[in-house]
Structure formats: structure tokens, C-alpha cells
Amino acid sequence: MSVARFSRHWCCTKLSWSCWRHYAWASVSCRFCSSDSRGYCSSDVKVTLKLLRIENAGILEEEKIVLQAITDTKLGNYIVLQSKKSPDGKVFSGVVPSAFWFTTMDVKRGDFIVLYTKVGVRSQKQGSENEPSSYFFYWDLEQPIWASDFKPTSVLASTWEWM
To answer: DSSP 3-state assignment of 155?
Structure first.
């Protein structure tokens, strides 16, 4: 199993950001920033969904991103982008080949969100009173996407505008 960890997130600011080709009908205001262990960005925007790891990169049937809610949050405020890595490990600007915008739903602190690359049907495993729930989403792609020089980037898109 290959595992990669990332601690950078997109956070909302007043900067204008045009959406990528899959979501050309919307625009959001976001920027890329580092966050500390509590999920706070330098702009004091609270990131409430943390990218934990990529599992089984390059194996379509098993490739997935695992995220965790660090506070109760609205999952529909988050988008995962397939972002290109620069030689120094930062994110290139420009075309984003794939994006996944989560469905509108509430998740609780500690809940796991698993985003598979493959085709599948959304499901969930309800946790007990003291255990987190797990939510399973499927990007519905036919090729693995994390074995190359791309990495997942989470975007907090708490505001957007329809055209």
C-alpha cells in the first residue's frame, strides 16, 4: 500500500478564482495556504475537512483518498481537485483535469470520508454512539489518477455563485 500525506489546503479568501472545465458554470473564492494541526489557515479560515492519505495509488480498484472531519461540517462545501505538483512540491496553477464536489450533507467530527477513483455507488457505514461513521464516494473514473505527479487538493468553497 502506498500512502502520501499532505497538509496544504485551499481556503476561501477575497481572491477571485475561476472554476475548471467540469464546473465552468460556477465561480468560487479560494486560495491555497498551509494549515496547522488544528486546521487553521494563515488567513484564519477554519478548514474542517483534513486530507489524511492516498491509499493504493495506481491500482484503480483500490485507489482512494481518505479524509476526516476535524469538526462537525457541511461536506458540500468541499471540492477535491486533481492538482499538478511542481518540482518543489507546490501546486501549479492552470487546468485541473478532474474535480469532485461532495454532495450536500452534514458530517460529524471524526467521521471518515473515502473518495474512490473507480466507478461505484455512494454508501455509508454508520458508526456507533462513540465511533465515527464512514462515507464512501466514487469519482467514477476509468483510470487511476494518483500514481503520477498529481496530488489531491481540498478546496473549501463555502461561497460560490451560479451563472
So the answer is: strand
Q: 137 vs 21, 34, 42, 87, 90, CA distance in Å?
A: 21, 26, 30, 30, 26
The CA-atom distances, in angstroms, between 122 and each of 43, 115, 116, 118, 137 are 33, 9, 10, 11, 5
Nine-digit cell string for 133: 461513521
* Contact between residue 64 and residue 70 where contact means Cβ atoms under 8 Å apart: no
Cβ count near 95 (within 10 Å): 8
**CA-derived radius of gyration, the chain:** 15
Residue ranges per structural domain of the chain? 3-162
Residue 124 burial class via C-beta count within 10 angstroms: exposed 0-12, middle 13-18, buried 19 and up: middle
Q: How far apart, in whole angstroms, are the C-alpha atoms of residue 58 and residue 117?
A: 10
Cα–Cα distance list, 105 to 24, 54, 76, 84, 134 (Å): 23, 23, 6, 28, 13
- pTM of the predicted model, to two decimals? 0.71
Q: How far apart are CA 152 and CA 139, in angstroms?
A: 13
| pLDDT tens-digit readout, 89-139 | 677 777 888 899 999 999 999 999 999 999 999 999 998 888 999 999 999
